[in-house]
């Protein structure tokens, strides 16, 4: 799956270099578990969210298992997908 995802990134014109990993990705699972990945970015691929990190590899999360996913940059953040309408944006 990861090679397919890398091929898709290439089709989208996205390259993996030091400048690609310019934010923090927050993953919240339906059970409330929270993950943060610094120096990372996320891309949706089919029914998956793929998190690419600068030093810790790549991770795949099935969309239906997530409450929401967010991408933060130093200046602002982008809400990628939100499953809970009561969730308030920070920023």
From TrEMBL:
This is Uncharacterized protein. The lineage of its organism: unclassified sequences, metagenomes, ecological metagenomes.
